[in-house]
Amino acid sequence: QNMTLPSHVDVVTNGDASFDSGHNRLLQLGYKQELKRDLSVVSNFALSFSIISVLTGITTLYNTGLNYGGPVSMQYGWFLASAFTMLVALSMAEICSAFPTSGGLYYWSAKLAGPKWSPFASWITGWFNIIGLWAGTTSVDFSLAQLIQVIILLSTGGKNGGGYVASKYVVLAFHGGILLLHGLINSLPVSVLSFLGQLSAIWNVLGKKFHF
């Protein structure tokens, strides 16, 4: 069955109320908008840019890419992977604009899979998404815990200078503390998270430029 995604650029006026395309599309889907949209375009971009965090990815994975792929993969692989990643991003952006619900991925999967496969598609997509988020969050926070360990080691004289070498249990304690801190930060109001996201994006840009 062919499916044509609805237009997401229209603005509909209902009496004295003017609805943007997202609000209008929710009404078409049979939903009333309940959640506030407090994040601006800049805040959304800053959040995505901070999550990607090129600086973090380079510093933690540079050695792996250089050892297993060599200089050629480090130089040209970047552009090749970026091109295909952009295609995925554009596809997801189109689907998101057509189905602007808070359910996100699992809702899109249910709608696009059709009535027969929608329960399975929604279930598998939702679980894979949450497992990926768990794995991504814990891996990034563990990398930060290891980075803190190295900073402490270098600040106290280095490995050959009698510096403090944290045990694996101390590193795990750092990891748990970072996870807890990030959980508390994410419980803050959206306005605060918006500010932190923009601050993080600026910090990433400055870090790349001045090698912080």
**From the alpha-carbon coordinates, what is the Rg to the nearest angstrom?**
22 Å
Tally of distinct domains: 2
Global geometry: globular
**N-to-C CA distance:** 53 Å
Low-confidence stretches: 1-18
Helix content: over 70%
Major sheet: size, sense and barrel closure?
A: 2 strands, antiparallel
How many helix segments? 7
Number of strands: 2
Overview of the molecule:
With 212 residues, this protein is mostly helical. It has 2 domains: 34 residues, no CATH class; 176 residues, no CATH class. Helices cover 73% and strands 3% of the residues. Strands 1-2 form a two-stranded antiparallel ribbon. A hairpin with a 2-residue loop joins strand 1 and strand 2. Helix 2 crosses helix 7, helix 3 crosses helix 4 and helix 5 crosses helix 6. The longest helix has 51 residues. It is globular.
Write the layout of secondary structure elements.
Blueprint: E1 12-14, E2 17-19, H1 21-29, H2 41-52, H3 54-68, H4 70-98, H5 105-155, H6 168-185, H7 190-210
Antiparallel strand pairs: 1-2
Helix pairs in contact: 2-7, 3-4, 5-6
Summarize the entry for a quick read.
One of its GO terms (molecular function) is gamma-aminobutyric acid transmembrane transporter activity. By secondary structure, the protein is an all-alpha fold. The protein contains seven helices and two strands.
